[in-house]
Amino acid sequence: MNSPGQPQTTGPAPAAGPRGAAFLLAQIGAHAAGRFAERIGHLGLTPADVGLLRMIAGQPGRSQRALAEDLGVVPSRVVRLIDGLEGKGLVERRRSAEDRRNHELHLTAEGKRTLGAVSRAAAAHEDALLAALDPEQRTRLLGLLQRVAAEQELTPGVHPGYRARG
To answer: What share of the chain is helix, strand, coil (3-state, %, to 5)?
Structure first.
């Protein structure tokens, strides 16, 4: 029973949730991934599609095999992923002049236009996600996260979700 002047309580206090940095990173990461997927959904893309487009744009002409190695997946997985992007008219395969067994990957003109739209959506996404931070805090956070990622030996620019999708 509460004493006079004390607020009424209706039951036990809620249990405190996880408060560690690892949990917060996972929570914010899941939230950010979901919101990003919403932002690019109107483009007919998934976050996995965006990652592939960025990797191809960053190294035009890379082979499917090299892309598979960079992603840490079997080549047949990359074939399926590229099939989808090719079907949307965003990527084209070209036979390698050096090794006719290999296909080189290139963005189409539509792929380049789409990647520009993705870049604008990604900038808006980051601004919304980090709205609580001033520019100096954003820079500091980015540096700290890069340091953690490097220490964990994560491959820069490659989301570990490609491996999980098998």
So the answer is: 60, 5, 35
Give me the amino acid identity at 27. Answer: Q
C-alpha torsion angle, residues 121, 122, 128, 129 (rounded to 10): 150
Q: Nearest to residue 37, comparing CAs of 48, 53, 25?
A: 48
**Residues 108, 63: Cα–Cα separation, whole Å:** 16
Write down the pTM of the prediction: 0.77
In degrees and rounded to multiples of 5, residue 64 shows phi and psi of -60, -40
pLDDT-based confidence at 73, cuts 50/70/90? confident
Residue 7 has pLDDT above 60, yes or no: no
If residue 95 lies in a helix (H) or strand (E), which one and from where to where? strand 91-95
pLDDT at 4: 54
Give how far Cα 37 sits from Cα of 30, 51, 131, 141, 144, Å. 11, 12, 19, 23, 25
Whole-number mean pLDDT of the chain?
87
